[in-house]
Design goal:
Number of strands of chain A: 2
Structural class of chain A: mainly alpha
Shape of chain C: elongated
Structural class of chain C: alpha+beta
Order of helices and strands of chain A: HHEEHHHHH
CATH class of chain A: Mainly Alpha
Number of strands of chain C: 14
Low-confidence stretches of chain A: 1-8, 213-221
CATH architecture of chain A: Up-down Bundle
Number of domains of chain C: 3
CATH superfamily of chain A: Cytochrome c oxidase, subunit III, four-helix bundle
Oligomer: heterotrimer
Helix content of chain A: over 70%
Chains: A mainly alpha (about 220), B mainly alpha (about 675), C alpha+beta (about 425)
Shape of chain A: elongated
Low-confidence stretches of chain C: 374-383, 397-406
Largest interface: B-C, 123 and 115 residues
Strand order of the largest sheet of chain A: 1-2
Strand content of chain C: 5-15%
Number of helices of chain A: 7
Strand order of the largest sheet of chain C: 5-4-3-7-10
C-alpha cells in the first residue's frame, strides 16, 4: 500500500521523479564531458604535432590509432545500446527472461568495449604515449578514461540489476522504471562515445588535409 | 490577530508501524535524539542541520577574517607570517562561499521549498540526507587541513619518516579561493614517482578533494530540488504561481548542475597533474595555465549568482509581507532572475580582463557584463515598486532586507565600474575588488540570509527572536560592514593589491586600513549578537503563533513548528500568494482528499546516506595523505570507495520503506468548502 | 516605536553620509601607487573611463537611492494606519518596466562607448604615437662612432622584456643590448625615457604574476607559457612605484618594483652606464675578502657580476646593485626613509621625488637580506626572520633537486660585513 502511495502519486509534469532526475544528471554530465572534450580539442589544436616519446622521437598520435579496432569497439557499444532498448522493452512487458538475456548481452558488449580500451591503453603506453610525457597524453587518457569509468559504472549497475532480477523483486511498474533509467544512462554513455570517437579519432580523417590543417604527418616508426 | 483558524489540516499522532526494509535491516523510524538526527530524511530537519553547520562555519570564516584584518591594521605588521596569512585568506574565501553561504541557502531550500509548493517532502528524501552528510564530511576534510597545519607547526609529525621527506610543508591551502595554476599545480618533468615539481604542498590537495566532495553534495542536492519543484507542486500551483523564493531556488539549482561540472573537470585535471604527473596546466610541458582560469570562472561566475539569487528570493518574499502588497512585476522579477542565470554563463572572462585576452574578447565580455546590470537593475526597480504605495513595517527582517537592497545596489554600482575593462585594468586584484564583492556577498547575500533567518525563525522553531536585540545586531552589522568595506574602495584606488599580508608605511594606506579593521570588529560583534540571539531563541525564545508576520505564502498556513508530514491533506492552489488570498481575498485554500483513512505516507529514516557519505570522508583524507607520502594512505582511498559503493548498494536494496500516519476525518478548517475527507 | 526607529535610521544615514564626506576629504589621491593620479596616456585613459563610470554611478546612486529613501519614508506604516492587505497578483506596469529597462541600457551605452575605444587604444602603441616614439626620433643611433642599435630597428619603438619570477622582476632591453644573455639585465628597477611610448613584453618563468605601475598603466598578467604585452608612456620624470598584483605564493606581498623615468638624454647615458663592467676591487680590503666569499659561498652560481663573475643567470644581476634604490624585490628601501618622506611632502613632484641611496641604509639592508632565511643568527641567538619567506636564495628545496639541499650556507657577522662591503663597490 505504501509503495503505491509513495510512487504512484501523480507528478506535476507526469514524468516520474526517477526519470526526471536521471535526465537532470545527464544534463550535468553533458557539461562534464563538454568540458573534457573541449580541453582535449583545445590542446589538439595547439599541439597538432603530437608528443615526444621516451627515446626523444617526435611521434604523432594518429599513427598510434588502430582505427579498425576502435571502430569495432564503437560498433559493439552501439549494438549494446540496441540490446539495452530491447531489455527495457522486455521489462515494460514483464518478460523477465527476455530482459535477463538482453541485459546479459549489454554487459557482455560493455565488457568487450572496456577490454578494447584496456588493450588500447596498454598498446599506446608501450608506443610511448603516457599521461606524463605530453599534454596530449594527459587529455587523451583522462578523457577516454573518464568515459571508460562511466561505462564501467554502467556495467556494474547492470550486473547488480541482473542478479537482483533473480530475487523476484524486480517486477512491475517500479522495476520497469528502474531499468528504463539505467537504460537512459547507458544510451547517454554511448552517445558521448560517438562524440569522443569523432573528436579524438575521426577528425584526423576528415578531408585530404585533416581537420587541423597540418595534414597527416608521415608515419614515423 | 490570530490566524489559527486558517491552519491546514493536522494529522493525528497515531502512527502505524514502519515497514520492514527489503533487507530486513533496522530502519530507525522511531529513533529519538542523535540517532534521529543522523538518520533523518525529513527535509525540515535536514534544513536545520544545514543551517546549523553553515552558521558554525560562518563563525570559523569570521574568525579567519578578523585575523586577517588584525594583521592589516598596522603597516609592516609581523603578527601573522606570510604563509599563515595566505592560508587564512584562502580558507576564509573558501569557507564563506562553500561552507557558509551555500549551505545556509541550502538550509532555506530544504526547509522552505516543499512547504511553499505544498509538498510533503522532497522528491528523494534519502538523497537529500546524502547531500547533507556529504557536505558535512567535505567541509570537515577541508578544515582538517588546519589540524594538519597546526600539528606541523607544533612539531607533532617531526618524528615520522614521511614528514622528513616532505619538500613542501604547507598543510593548509594557500592559493586563494580560485587556486590559479601553476601556483596550485606543477611545473617541469615528473619524476619516477610521478611527482612533478610544484609550488605548494598538501594544503592544495586538501582543497582539491574538499571542493570536489562539496561539489558532489551540491550537485546531488540540486538534482533533488529541481525534481521537487518541477514535479511535486500541489494542484493549481502553476509555475507562475510559485513563490519567488522557490523560483530562485530552481534557477540556482539549474545553475549548479550546469556550472559545477566545469570545476569538477578542472579539479580532476589539477588532481591528475599533482598526483599522477599529468600536464594539463604544466607550462613546461606545454600546458596552458590560462585554461584553469577559464574552467574555474566558467564555474566561478555562475557561482556568484548561485550565492546571490537565493538571497534575492528571500528579499522578494519579505518585501511583500511587510508592505502588505503583492510583489510588483512578479513575472518580470522571475524572468530577470532567469536572465541573470543565463547571462551568468556568458561573462566569466571579466575576471580575466588583465590576462591579455586581446581586444575583441575583452570588448565582448565587457559589453556582456554591462548587459547583466540590466536584469539586476530590473529587480531593484521592482522591489521599489513593491514598496511604493504599500505600508512599510520596519520589522527586523524588513530592516535587513532594505539593507540588502541598499548594499547590493552599491555593490552593483562598483560592479558596473569593473565591467569597463580599461577601468578594471587598474582595479583588478586590488582592494577595490575586495570592496565590490564584499558589498555584493556580505552586504547583499549575508544581509539577505540574515533577513531570511529572522523572517522564518518563528516558522522553523515556533519562537520569536528578541526584536530589540535583532535591531541592535542589524545596526551593528550594517554600520560595521560599511566601515570595514567602504574604505577599501579608496585603498584599492590608492593602489593596494589584494592578498598581500603586509604593506609598508608611506603608501598612504595606514589610516584606512585601521578604520577597516575597526569596522570589521564592529561587524564581528554584530554577527555574534545575531548568532547568540538566534541560538538563544531556538531553545528559550518567546513562543508565537503560526503566522506572526501576516505571511502570504503556504508555509504560514501550517502550525509552527511544522509537523513532520507538512500537509495532512495536500492543498489546492487558486492564486499566487495563496495564503494571503485565503485570508483576505475571495479564494479560500481547499484541500485534497488524499490523506483520508489510509493516512499520510512517510518515508523511512535510513543509515545508508550517512554510510555512503562516510566513504567520502575516507577518500578525502586518503588523497592528501597519499600526497604526504604517508604509507598505506592509498588503502584509505580504496576503503572509501568500497564504503561508498557498499553504501549506495545497500541504499538501493533497502528500498524507500515508509510508514503511515493516519489522518482523522474531522480536522478540516470550518471555512473549507469541501470538508468531507472520507474516501 | 517605529517612527523612533525610523528617526534613528535617518540619523544613521546622515552619520554615514557625513563619514563618507569626511573620508573623501581626508583621502589623499596622490599617494605612491594611486590610480587617481595618472602620469601617462595609458593611465590617463583608464582614469578617464573610470571617471565616466563614477559620474554615471553617482547619478544613478542619487536617483535610485533617493527614490528608495523617499519610498521607504513616504510609505512607512504609521500608528493607527488601516493596513489593507492587497492580494491581487502584481504584474507590474509594462510602461514603467520598459521605460526603466530602456533607460538602463541607455545609461550603459554612456560608458560602453568610451570603454570600447579605450580597449583598442590600450592594447598596443597607437599609430599616432609611433612617429615621435620610434628609436630614431629620440635615441642617437651612434655615439662617438659606436653603434647603439641596429639600423633595422630605427622605426621601432623601444621594447622592454619583463620576466616575472618568484618574487622579483627582471627587465631586459633587447634592442639596446641589455639582456640577461648578454649579462646586462636590470632587476627590479625599470628605467624608461620620458614622453615616448614603449612596448612591454611580459613573460613569467614559474607562476602567474602581474605587472602594474598604477600611475603609468593598469596591470597586465605575466603568465607562464604565454606572451602578453602592453604599452606604457610616462610624461613626468620621477621615481614610480609598482607591485605584483597577482597572488604568486608565500612572498607575494614583497614582490614590488620601481620605475625610474628619465629625460631621454639621461636614459641614453643610463644605458651606457649599465653596460659598464664592475670596477676592480682594491686588494687587502674587506671588499676583496667579500669578493672571495661571493665565490666561496656559491653566490656566484646564480648571481652575475659582469667583470668579476659570469656564471650566474638565474638570480638578479648584481653588477650595479649598489646604485639601486631598493633591495630584495624592492621591499627594502636603500634610501633614508625620513629624508624621503620629507621630500615627498615638499617637492612639487610629490611622491615621484626621490632622494639618493644612503650608504648606511644600503649596508644594513644588504646584511639583513643576505643574513636572513634562518642562515645567520640574530642577537637573541635565534635565526633572523626571513625578509622574504620561501625565497630561493636559501630555499633550494624548491628545485626538487636533492643535492642542492645540502648547499645551505652560513655566514658569520664578519663575513656578512665583508660581503656587504664588496657589494657596495658595485655601483
Amino acid at each position: 500500500m505504501s509503495e503505491a502511495a509513495a510512487h504512484d502519486a501523480p507528478t506535476s509534469t507526469g514524468i516520474e521523479h526517477k526519470k526526471l532526475i536521471m535526465w537532470l544528471f545527464l544534463a550535468s554530465d553533458c557539461m562534464f564531458f563538454g568540458t573534457l572534450i573541449s580541453t582535449h580539442l583545445l590542446y589538439r589544436k595547439l599541439y597538432p604535432t603530437g608528443f615526444t616519446d621516451a627515446e626523444g622521437h617526435q611521434r604523432f598520435i594518429q599513427n598510434l590509432f588502430n582505427i579498425e579496432l576502435t571502430s569495432f569497439s564503437t560498433f559493439i557499444l552501439l549494438m549494446s545500446s540496441f540490446l539495452m532498448a530491447l531489455a527495457v522493452s522486455a521489462m515494460h512487458k514483464g518478460q523477465i527472461k527476455s530482459f535477463r538475456r538482453n541485459v546479459l548481452g549489454v554487459i557482455f558488449f560493455g565488457l568487450i568495449f572496456l577490454g578494447c580500451q584496456v588493450f588500447e591503453f596498454t598498446h599506446f603506453y608501450h608506443q610511448g604515449l603516457t599521461i606524463q610525457n605530453s599534454v596530449l597524453g594527459s587529455t587523451f587518457y583522462v578523457l577516454t578514461g573518464t568515459h571508460g569509468t562511466h561505462v564501467a559504472i554502467g556495467v556494474l549497475w547492470l550486473i547488480l540489476l541482473y542478479f537482483y532480477s533473480f530475487s523476484g523483486k524486480l517486477q512491475g511498474h517500479v522495476a520497469a522504471l528502474d531499468v528504463e533509467v539505467a537504460g537512459l544512462y547507458w544510451h547517454f554513455v554511448d552517445i558521448v562515445w560517438i562524440i569522443i570517437f569523432t573528436a579524438v579519432y575521426l577528425v584526423e580523417y576528415l578531408g585530404p588535409n585533416g581537420f587541423w590543417g597540418s595534414g597527416l604527418p608521415p608515419v614515423i616508426k | 490577530m490570530s490566524h489559527d483558524s486558517h491552519h491546514a489540516p493536522v494529522a493525528s499522532k497515531l502512527e502505524l508501524a514502519p515497514e520492514r526494509s527489503d533487507l530486513g535491516l533496522y530502519r530507525p523510524d522511531r529513533a529519538t535524539g542523535w540517532v534521529d538526527w543522523l538518520t533523518t530524511v525529513d527535509h525540515k530537519k535536514i534544513g536545520i542541520l544545514y543551517g546549523a553547520f553553515a552558521m558554525f562555519y560562518f563563525l570559523v570564516g569570521g574568525v579567519e577574517a578578523l585575523a586577517i584584518r588584525t594583521q592589516l591594521a598596522r603597516p609592516d605588521n609581523t603578527l601573522i607570517t606570510a604563509r599563515m596569512y595566505n592560508q587564512l585568506f584562502t580558507m576564509h574565501g573558501t569557507t564563506m562561499i562553500f561552507l557558509g553561504v551555500m549551505p545556509l541557502s541550502a538550509g532555506f531550500f530544504n526547509f522552505l521549498v516543499p512547504l511553499q509548493i505544498g509538498a510533503r517532502d522532497v522528491a528523494f528524501p534519502r538523497l537529500n540526507a546524502f547531500s547533507l552528510w556529504t557536505f558535512v564530511f567535505g567541509a570537515f576534510v577541508l578544515n582538517a587541513s588546519w589540524l594538519f597545519e597546526f600539528g606541523h607547526l607544533a612539531g607533532w609529525f617531526n618524528q615520522f619518516e614521511w614528514h622528513k621527506n616532505l619538500i613542501y610543508t604547507d598543510f593548509a591551502p594557500a592559493n586563494g579561493w580560485f587556486s590559479y595554476a601553476p601556483l596550485s599545480g606543477t611545473i617541469g618533468q615528473a619524476d619516477q614517482a610521478l611527482h612533478s615539481p610544484r609550488f605548494t604542498g598538501v594544503g592544495t590537495d586538501f582543497w582539491i578533494i574538499g571542493i570536489q566532495i562539496l561539489g558532489i553534495a551540491s550537485l546531488a542536492a540540486s538534482f533533488n530540488f529541481i525534481c521537487t519543484i518541477v514535479n511535486m507542486r500541489a494542484k493549481g500551483m502553476t509555475m507562475m504561481r510559485l513563490p519567488v523564493f522557490t523560483w530562485m531556488t530552481l534557477v540556482t539549482a539549474i545553475l549548479i548542475i550546469l556550472a559545477f561540472p566545469a570545476i569538477t573537470v578542472a579539479l580532476i585535471e589539477l588532481m591528475f597533474d599533482r598526483q599522477f604527473g599529468a600536464n594539463f596546466f604544466n607550462p613546461s610541458a606545454g600546458g596552458q595555465p590560462i585554461l584553469w582560469q577559464h574552467l574555474f570562472w566558467i564555474f566561478g561566475h555562475p557561482e556568484v549568482y548561485i550565492l546571490v539569487l537565493p538571497a534575492m528570493g528571500i528579499v522578494s518574499e519579505i518585501l511583500p509581507t511587510f508592505t502588505g502588497r503583492p510583489l510588483f512585476g512578479y513575472p518580470i522579477i522571475v524572468f530577470s532572475g532567469c536572465v541573470i542565470g543565463f547571462l551568468g554563463f556568458a561573462v566569466w572572462s571579466h575576471h580575466m580582463f588583465t590576462t591579455g585576452l586581446g581586444p575583441v574578447p575583452t570588448a565582448a565580455f565587457s559589453l556582456l557584463t554591462m548587459a547583466i546590470a540590466v536584469p539586476t537593475g530590473v529587480k531593484i526597480f521592482n522591489w521599489m515598486g513593491t514598496i511604493w504605495g504599500g505600508r512599510v513595517r520596519f520589522t527586523p527582517p524588513m530592516v535587513l532586507s532594505l539593507g540588502f537592497i541598499w548594499m547590493f545596489m552599491c555593490g552593483g554600482f562598483s560592479g558596473v565600474m569593473h565591467s569597463s575593462a580599461p577601468a578594471d585594468a587598474q582595479q583588478q586584484d586590488t582592494y577595490f575588488v575586495i570592496a565590490h564583492f564584499h558589498y555584493v556577498l556580505l552586504g547583499g547575500v549575508l544581509l539577505g540570509l540574515m533577513a531570511g533567518l529572522y523572517f522564518w525563525f518563528p516558522k522553523i522553531f515556533g519562537r520569536m527572536p528578541n526584536e530589540k536585540v535583532a535591531y541592535l545586531a542589524s545596526g551593528l552589522v550594517i554600520i560595521g560592514f560599511n566601515l570595514a568595506f567602504g574604505p577599501m574602495h579608496y585603498l584599492g584606488l590608492a593602489g593596494m593589491p589584494r592578498r598581500t599580508h603586509t604593506y609598508h608605511a608611506g603608501n598612504g594606506w595606514e589610516t584606512w586600513n585601521l578604520v577597516a579593521t575597526v569596522g570589521a570588529y564592529i561587524l564581528g560583534i554584530g554577527v555574534a549578537t545575531a548568532f547568540i540571539n538566534l541560538v538563544w531563541t531556538a531553545f528559550k525564545g518567546r513562543k508565537v503563533e503560526s503566522d506572526p508576520w501576516d505571511g502570504r505564502t503556504l508555509e504560514w498556513s501550517l502550525p509552527s513548528p511544522v509537523p513532520e508530514y507538512n500537509f495532512a491533506q495536500s492543498p489546492v492552489i487558486g492564486a499566487r500568494d495563496a495564503f494571503s488570498e485565503h485570508k483576505y481575498g475571495d479564494l479560500r485554500l481547499i484541500y485534497e482528499k488524499d490523506g483520508g483513512p489510509s493516512g499520510v505516507h512517510m518515508p523511512s529514516q535510513s543509515w545508508m546516506p550517512l554510510l555512503a557519505s562516510a566513504g567520502f570522508l575516507f577518500i578525502g583524507f586518503g588523497m592528501p595523505m597519499m600526497s604526504m607520502g604517508i604509507p598505506y594512505a592509498g588503502w584509505l582511498v580504496i576503503t572509501g570507495l568500497v564504503v561508498l559503493i557498499a553504501g549506495i548498494w545497500l541504499w538501493a536494496l533497502e528500498g524507500p520503506g515508509g510508514y503511515m500516519l493516519t489522518t482523522p476525518t474531522n480536522t478540516a478548517p470550518a471555512n473549507q468548502p469541501s470538508a468531507s475527507l472520507s474516501r | 516605536m517605529l517612527s523612533r526607529l525610523f528617526t534613528r535610521a535617518a540619523w544613521l544615514v546622515v552619520a554615514l553620509v557625513s563619514a563618507f564626506m569626511v573620508g573623501c576629504s581626508k583621502a589623499d589621491l596622490q599617494v605612491r601607487q594611486s590610480t587617481l593620479d595618472p602620469k601617462g596616456p595609458v593611465a590617463k585613459l583608464q582614469y578617464d573611463v573610470f571617471m565616466d563610470t563614477v559620474w554615471l554611478v553617482l547619478v544613478l546612486f542619487v536617483l535610485v537611492g533617493g527614490l528608495l529613501v523617499y519610498a521607504v519614508v513616504r510609505f512607512r506604516a504609521r500608528p493607527g494606519d488601516d493596513v489593507k492587505v492587497v492580494t491581487q497578483e502584481g504584474h507590474g506596469n509594462p510602461l514603467v518596466e520598459i521605460g526603466l529597462i530602456t533607460a538602463s541600457i541607455g545609461a550603459l551605452v554612456f560608458i560602453a562607448i568610451p570603454t570600447l575605444g579605450a580597449i583598442w587604444i590600450d592594447d598596443d602603441v597607437p599609430a599616432s604615437a609611433v612617429p615621435t616614439s620610434k628609436l630614431s626620433a629620440w635615441y642617437p643611433r651612434t655615439i662617438s662612432g659606436v653603434e647603439q642599435y641596429a639600423a633595422t630597428l630605427e622605426n621601432q619603438v623601444l621594447e622592454i622584456d619583463v620576466v616575472g619570477k618568484q618574487w622579483w622582476f627582471r627587465f631586459e632591453y633587447p634592442q639596446l643590448g641589455l639582456t640577461n644573455d648578454a649579462k646586462h639585465s636590470v632587476p627590479n628597477e625599470m628605467v624608461i625615457p620620458k614622453g615616448v611610448a614603449i612596448h612591454i613584453n611580459l613573460r613569467a618563468e614559474d607562476v602567474i604574476h602581474s605587472f602594474w605601475i598604477p600611475k603609468i598603466a593598469g596591470k597586465v598578467d605575466l603568465i607562464p607559457g604565454r606572451k602578453n604585452h602592453l604599452w606604457i608612456q610616462a610624461d613626468e620624470v620621477g621615481h614610480y612605484y609598482g607591485q605584483c598584483a597577482e597572488f604568486c605564493g608565500d612572498s607575494h606581498a614583497y614582490m614590488l618594483f620601481r620605475c625610474e623615468v628619465l629625460e631621454p638624454a639621461d636614459f641614453v647615458k643610463w644605458v651606457a652606464s649599465q653596460k659598464k663592467e664592475a670596477a676592480p676591487v682594491a686588494e687587502n680590503t674587506k671588499a676583496a675578502k667579500g669578493k672571495e666569499l661571493f665565490a666561496a659561498k656559491t653566490c656566484v652560481m646564480c648571481h652575475n657580476v659582469s667583470g668579476h663573475f659570469g656564471a650566474g643567470s638565474f638570480a638578479p644581476d648584481l653588477t650595479h646593485v649598489a646604485s639601486r634604490k631598493s633591495l630584495a624585490g624592492a621591499w627594502l628601501d636603500n634610501r633614508d626613509p625620513k629624508a624621503q618622506v620629507a621630500i615627498e611632502h615638499t617637492s612639487p613632484l610629490g611622491t615621484e621625488a626621490s632622494v639618493a641611496v644612503d650608504p648606511a641604509v644600503l649596508k644594513a639592508n644588504l646584511i639583513r637580506w643576505i643574513g636572513s632565511s634562518g642562515v645567520a643568527t640574530g642577537a637573541d641567538g635565534k635565526p633572523t626572520k626571513d625578509v622574504k619567506p620561501g625565497n630561493r636564495m636559501h630555499f633550494y628545496k624548491m628545485f626538487n633537486v636533492a643535492s642542492l639541499n645540502e648547499t645551505h650556507q652560513t655566514f658569520t657577522a664578519e663575513e656578512l660585513d665583508c660581503l656587504a662591503e664588496y657589494l657596495m663597490t658595485l655601483k
